[in-house]
Amino acid sequence: MLSHSKIKFVRSMEQKKYRVSSSCFLAEGNKLVSDLLPFFDCELLLAESSWLAQQGDVRVANLEIVDNQDIRKASLLKNPQEVIAVFRQAQHVLSPEGLMNSLSLVLDGLQDPGNLGTIIRLADWFGIADIICSESTVDVYNPKVVQASMGALARVRVHYVDLLDFLPQFKTIVPIYGTFLEGGTDIYASQLAAKGMIVMGNEGNGISEEVAAYIDHRLYIPTFPQGASSSESLNVAMATAITCAEFRRQEVYATQGV
C-alpha cells in the first residue's frame, strides 16, 4: 500500500509553492511519462506492473509498484491511467547568442494553462526551441500545462524573465514581431524574417502597452473574406499556430528560392 506521505507529496505538486520549494513537477499518463522519462530526472515513479512490463528497463531510484486504487488516491485526474511520475524541474540557461540566431516565442501574461501547454506543443512542431515568458505568465510546471504540452517539454526550453528588461537588449539586434487585433500589417502581406522574436499577448487584453513599445513589426491575422462579420478574436494558441506556420512557410519558400 502506498504511504500517505508519498500520496501527499504527489498531490502537493498541484500547488506552485510546493513545486517551487521542491523544484519538482508532476506528470500523469502512460505516454506522457514514457516521453519524459529519458529527459528529466525522476524523483518518484508510481506505476502499475502492467505499465512497467511494457517499458523494458526502467531505472528510477524511487519506484513504487502500485495498484489502480493507489494511483487513484494520488492522481489529480478524473480518469488516471497506470503511471504517475514526479520529475525534477529542468534548469535551462537562456543564451542571448542562441536567440539571435533562431526564431523564438515571447509570451506576455498568458493565464490559461491549456493555452501555454498547447503553445509549447506548437513550438515543438515548428522547431522553436525557446519560449520566453513574462513573470506573470502561468507556471510551465502547472500540471495542466504539463498535460497539454503532450511531452513537448522534453524539447522546448521555457524561460521566465522581466520582459521590460529583456526586450530592450534585443530591439536593435533581431526583429521583434507582435500580433494585434488592429493597427498592424496583414501577416500574409508581410515579409517575415527567419530569425527573430514573436510576441503573443494575454488572452483577454492582448499585448500590454509597455511590451508593445518594443515591437518593431505589428501583425494581424485577417478574417476571410476581409471585412466579413466574424468572431471577435482568435484563441491565443490558435493565433500562435497560424503565425508560426506563416513564418516557417516563408522561410522554406525563401530557402527554395520560390
Compose a concise summary of this entry.
This protein has helices at 4-12, 16-22, 30-36, 49-52, 68-74, 96-100, 113-125, 143-149, 163-166, 209-212, 236-256; strands at 24-28, 42-47, 63-65, 83-88, 103-108, 130-134, 157-161, 176-179, 185-186, 196-201, 217-220.
Give a description of the structure:
The protein is α/β, with parallel strands linked by helices. 34% of the residues lie in helices and 20% in strands. The protein contains eleven helices and eleven strands. The strands form two sheets. It has a seven-stranded parallel sheet. A four-stranded mixed sheet has the order 1-4-2-3. α7 packs parallel to α8 and α7 packs parallel to α11. The longest helix has 21 residues. The termini are far apart. 36% of the residues are buried.
Strand content: 15-25%
Question: Uncertain regions: pLDDT < 50 for 5+ in a row?
Answer: none
Oligomerization state: single chain
Secondary-structure element sequence? HHEHEHEHEHEHEHEHEEEHEH
Largest sheet: 7 strands, parallel
Helix content: 25-40%
Shape: elongated
Q: How many strand elements?
A: 11
From the N-terminal CA to the C-terminal CA, the straight-line distance is 63 Å
Structural class: alpha/beta
Major sheet: order of its strands?
7-6-5-10-8-11-9
Mean pLDDT: 94
State the helix count.
11
**Rg from C-alpha positions?**
20 Å
Output the keywords.
258 residues; alpha/beta; 11 strands; elongated
